Amino acid sequence: MLRKIYLTIAFIFFTTLAFSQTGTLKGVITDAMSGEPIPFANIVAERNGNQIGGTTTDFDGNYTIKPLEPGSYTVKATFVGYGAVEITGVIISANKITDQNVKLQEGVAIGEVKIIEYKKPLLDKDNLSGETKTAEEIVALPTRSVTSVAATTAGIYQRDEGDGVNIRGSRGDATEYYIDGIKVRGSMGVPTSGIEQITVITGGVPAKYGDATGGIISVTTKGPSSKFSSGLEFETSSLFDDYNYNILGFALSGPILKERKSDGTKGSSIIGYFLAGELLSVDDNDPSAIGRWKVKDDVLEGLRRNPFVVAPNSTAGFLSSSEFLKPSDFELVEAKQNSNLKRINVSGKLDFKPTSNTFLSVGGSFYANKNYDFSGWRSMFSWDNNRNTSQTTYRLFGKLTQKFGTEETNSDESASTIKNAFFTIQGDYTNNKYTYDDPNHGDNLFHYGYVGKFNTYKAPIYQNGSAVDSLTGTIYNGRILNGWADTLYTFNASDINPSLVNYTSAYYDMFSKYGMNSFQGATMANFFNVDASNDGVIRTAADLKGQGLMNGDLPASVYSLYGNHGTMYNGSAKQENTQTSFKVSGSADINSHEFSFGFEFEQRKDYYWGIGPMGLWGLMRQQANKHILERDLSNPQPVIDLLTGIYQDTVKYERLVIDSEQSNFDRNLRNHLIAIKAVDNQGNLITDKTYIDIDSYDPSTYSLNFFSPDELLNNGSSLVYYYGYDIYGNKPSTIPSLSDFFKPESNRSIAPFNPIYTAGYIQDKFAIEDLIFNVGLRVDRYDANQKVLKDQHLLYSTHTVSANTPLINQTDIPSTIGADYVVYVDDINDPSAIVGYRNNFDDTWYNADGLEISDPNLLAEEAGGKIAPYLDKDGRDALDEGIVSMNAFEDYEPEIVFMPRIAFSFPISDEAQFFAHYDVLTQRPPGGNRIEPLDYLFMADRVGATLNNPNLKPEKTVDYELGFAKTLSLKSALKISAFYKELRDMIQVTNVLQAYPAQYYTYGNIDFGTVKGLSINYDLRRTNNVQMTANYTLQFADGTGSSATSGASLVNTGQPNLRTTIPLSYDQRHAISAAVDYHYGNGKDYNGPVWFGSKVFENAGANVTLSAGSGTPFSKQSNITQEAADGINDRSTLEGSLNGSRLPWQFRISMKVNKEFEIKWNDKKKSYLNVYLQVQNLLDARNIISVYRATGNPEDDGYLTAAASQNAIDAKNDAESFRYLYSLAVNNPNNYSLPRMFRAGINIQF
Fold first, then answer.
1. Which member of 130, 529, 673, 1066 has the greatest number of CB atoms within 10 A?
2. For residue 307, how far is the Cα from the chain centroid?
3. Residue 621 CA to chain centroid, in angstroms?
4. What is the mean pLDDT of residues 392-419?
5. What Å distances lie between residue 716 and 445, 787, 937, CA to CA?
């Protein structure tokens, strides 16, 4: 009795802190002849030869074994006097109950074991909408992508192979991914050989899952085996194409320590391991169905040697040679250039089972890749400068499961109220890092855009006048120094960026060649605004601006269609995301109720630092010398003949040093140059008055730390973007506060984004007569853990109507105006009258008479054109001092959401059932909600910018489903379900009208939508070699926005925040998916042809997947715009309704054929060799996945043939060259699905 009390206390403690991702095995053991239940029979579940769980039946022959990790099990049942039964291949799925009844035959000879192959039930009693794919099914499919495996499930839209998914009309970011119960941050990559199951939940989400409004995709990895096993796999496309896809995979599994039985033999594993990994190298991971165009190598080399031509019209100076190419200068290639991806992916785990009731698993995964990111902009001329991206992700986890009771149940325990009690504690940590940079320069910031040393030679400028000595009063008349002028600008090339250097070297050569003595030279002199007497000599930096490059410059584009040769990636960045979570889960059967409880705590930290390093050169020139630009007029230096003492008619001045004007950069650089005894181009040591020629020094001279934080922020035109780091890219030792950031003397460090997510749930599964209920309640708490604006319209604290001020007291406040309404006045600096009010709760505006108005611009007009909030003292002081006051901010108020989950099923018979569910789901804001202190620091200058909203709330979905399932035969079943979803509080760009100090755009929880649909699933189990699953989905997904930014173009026109439902961009009306597997068996199960006594197709077959779907919506436009060009902001005009047009149907078939061979090494050892050929997009269907809105065509936007375009085209430097280049650029390969791809592979299991 005392033991039961302890058990109950332990259960309550642990299960109130619960989370797990396991399955349950249940059933009844009966006498095969009489059908009577057999009490106290033994039953165990083994996985890979290791006993994972076991129990004995109760008085009624019932048994339950839980928790069990998802996977394939062998179930063994025994009882004294009965023959043993062994059922192989029993599938346990996450969050589901697997029913397996066992019939024992009495009087069978001792030692005889009846082996039965598990048959998966055709009807699922757990009512989860979705599907589970086992390891065998995953390997058979012609894909290695987790999302593509998931896309075979009804109700899932995937645009193309390997893309993300939309589950039942939800946005792509509404899907949550799990690996072994760990919420995924960073890479989703898992070695294919290490995957045990992929479970997709599209509806009826259990209460243990949260933070997702679309659905769940959960990956479970394999566990250790009782015997050593290993496997190798190699797959390649190099035999068939230039994509050069090559992957090598491996898997190792086995015991480390086994228990010793009483007879001295080894028993089950106490410690076991599993390790799997993949090495991938691919030259083009996203190939084009129409190929890629590039300039021929010899032509490109010629362009690099001679980047300029003299313009046919001599008044135009030098022009880019790249703008005068012919069609014969280009070639079509199959694969992208310089887009290689290399990846390593390893996962493993150690399982410990010190007792039959205690299970500990520790493990993790490591993912690293390095790739050159393809860029369409650089693809034609500058593909060798593709950005380098590196990513590493590692996950660590530990999970302890403790069961209560023993595996041998006595009569007292069989009658116990509490059965099958257990708890699981899991902790995990994820770290995800990225770096982005130029592959040649990395974090050598001053190498970006560096072409060489430029020396500027200056000479004094004199003019007739007079000067007064402030000390003596002496007046000097004559030639007075008026300043300094550049007389020569020389260049010494560097080898750091040879492709850029050529522009400047060639420019100097051509400038010299076309001297000023000829008609051509005189014209050039006029064009370059230099004195004709220069005779082709470059005198100033301004002379380079024809086409030559200075340090930090990039070459001009080719007709705004492509970056010219030498165009490099201008960026260096690093990013880090971490996730720490703790989950405890528990469950117990109390009488007829199966209770589970849970708790989850999760904290994330996000860091980012990035810089546009080429801009540093311009910033250095701007910050240097600005304190010595003036003459020291108070100290004239007359030129006196030392012999005669006679004034020589000339007065000089030294540079005036204005300490208050000296930048932090100049001070630090100057001190550094003085310390290293640097000299100027005349050989003079640097002093406090030397004019520093920035471009004359080596890049190693400079350091980012020479700049002050505010200099790098550059009055809002910042070169650096960051959070979680200081402005120099270092992590602060302590977390900086927002108030510290806004202090003028601050180092401007920004705290990492550090949200906290907690959740708890309770769930009960029970039956009332024939109705089976699964009822749960989940409570989520989301805390953004940051400051937010008290009022998104105001950066400064402001009076409300309740304030006691003379102006408010003397004003007759209308009765419609509340005490907490914000007051607006006629003049922000000298308010004399109240012109209106605003209710901050619902953002309603009122005029001075208390009448509601829809246009707040009316209040701005009464304040002289700019809105004028009635600032309080703190707001007034902050505005006058040019600072941001913390009184405008408050802490984010955590959101607590209650989410009931109800599911039930009603079996009509053993062959049919009705089912239904009701879910409430929420998800934290998926983006746009991190506080950006830089936005507020420079808010007055960011009129019309889109700013983050740190006060965003979670998105919500209410989900309903009603369905019917029926077996059609012993091996086939049909399921029909209708679903309805309400999408609420979705995030969308919104206009913050008449905000102060500047109107801006931000994100708000203003979008909504509905999804209605019908799914039909057909399941055919293997019959005469054929196994098939097929589904059809009819869906209507309507909403006010397809993504958080889909409404940006509307709000940019100044329209109010209108909400009208339209078909969502991923609204695929009809979707068909099928997977057909045709395989021959082996041995006595082989029924194929026999040729010359050989079973030629033994263990051979094919798996074919089919995906077909109607086109998704897009919005037509009535006018022609220049879509292929970059930086051309033509405004489109809507034709018809938003998303009122549709793309064509899509159709894709993929196939995998294989044959397995048995290799016998000796009588006891054998291996299995599997040879396969995988073909994706078997029919090479060129599906159109995007079109140009004006034409509805994927290869033509109409610009080249439009009458309105002809004058602009004819005015190009070479109209024919432009037309051809434009035709290549406009036929965007991204408008088509992936091409047919062949991959051959071998897989050997030892």
1. 130
2. 38
3. 37
4. 74
5. 21, 21, 8
The pLDDT assigned to 249 comes to 93
Q: What angle do CA 978, 982, 983 make, to 5 degrees?
A: 130
Residue 104 and residue 31 in contact, taking contact as beta carbons nearer than 8 Å: yes
Q: Is there a contact between 1161 and 1167 (Cβ–Cβ < 8 Å)? A: yes
Q: Which amino acid is at 573?
A: A
Tracing tokens 């100027």 back to the chain, one arrives at: 680
Identify the CATH number of the domain defined by range 2-117: 2.60.40.1120
Name the phi and psi angles at 1204, rounded to 5.
-70, -15
In whole angstroms, give the CA distance from residue 625 to residue 690.
8
pLDDT for 498: 93
298-317: buried (b, 16+ CB within 10 Å) or exposed (e) per residue? ebbeebbeebbbeeeeeeeb
Q: How far apart are alpha carbons 65 and 23 in whole angstroms?
A: 9
Question: Rounded mean pLDDT of 533-555?
Answer: 81
- What is the pLDDT, as a whole number, of residue 517? 39
- Is there a cis peptide before residue 732, judged by omega within 30 degrees of 0? no
DSSP per-residue letters across 532-553? GGGTT---SGGGGGGT---TT-
Distance CA 175, CA 178 (A): 10
Q: What are the residues facing 1190 on neighbouring strands?
A: none
The answer to whether the CB of 582 falls within 8 A of the CB of 598 is: no
Q: Which of helix, strand or coil describes residue 1072?
A: strand
How far are the Cα atoms of 617, 646, 725, 837, 885 from residue 444, in angstroms, in the given order? 13, 56, 18, 54, 37
pLDDT of 1048: 81
How many CA atoms lie less than 13 Å away from 1020 in the CB half-sphere?
Answer: 15
- Report pLDDT for 313: 63
DSSP per residue, 230-299: EEEEEEE-TTT-SS--EEEEEEEEEEEEEEEPTTS-EEEEEEEEEEEEEEEEES-SS--SS-EEEE-HHH
Q: Cα(406)–Cα(422) distance, rounded to whole angstroms?
A: 12
**For the chain, which residues make up each domain, given as ranges?**
2-117, 292-333+494-550, 787-891
Specify the range with the lowest mean pLDDT, choosing from 254-263, 844-853, 874-883.
Answer: 254-263
Nearest to 696 by CA among 613, 611, 617: 617
Mean pLDDT calculated for residue range 913-932: 94
Beta carbons of 403 and 565 less than 8 angstroms apart:
no
How far is Cα 527 from Cα 533, in angstroms, rounded to an integer? 14
Evaluate if residue 1165 carries a pLDDT over 70.
Answer: yes
- Tell how many helices (H) and how many strands (E) occur in the chain: 18, 56
Asked if residue 63 lies in contact with residue 92, where contact means CB atoms within 8 angstroms, the answer is no
Residue bearing the bigger pLDDT, 838 or 4: 838
Which two three-digit tokens encode residue 1112? 């998704």
> Of 169-183, 249-263, 675-689, 873-887, which range is least confident?
249-263
In angstroms, the CA 952 to CA 926 distance is 10
Asked whether the predicted pLDDT for residue 930 surpasses 90, the reply is: yes
pLDDT at 334: 93
Q: How far is CA 1038 from CA 158, 629, 1056, in A?
A: 18, 63, 20
In three state form, how does the secondary structure of 680-744 look? CCCCCECCCCCCCCHHHCCHHHCCHHHCCHHHHHHHHCCCEEEECCCCCCCCCCCCCCHHHHHCC
Cis peptide before 744 (omega within 30 of 0): no
Q: Are 974 and 946 in contact (CB under 8 A)?
A: no
Q: Residue 914 and residue 336: Cα distance in Å, rounded?
A: 52
pLDDT for the residue numbered 408: 53
Q: Binning pLDDT at 50, 70 and 90, where does residue 1016 land?
A: very high
Average per-residue pLDDT for the chain: 88
Residue 3's pLDDT is 43
Condensed to tens digits (0 to 9), the pLDDT of residues 382-405 reads 999 999 999 999 999 999 988 886
- Spatial neighbors of 797 by CB under 8 A, at least 6 apart, are 790, 871, 872, 874, 875, 878, 885, 887, 888
The whole-number average pLDDT for the span 519-547 is: 60
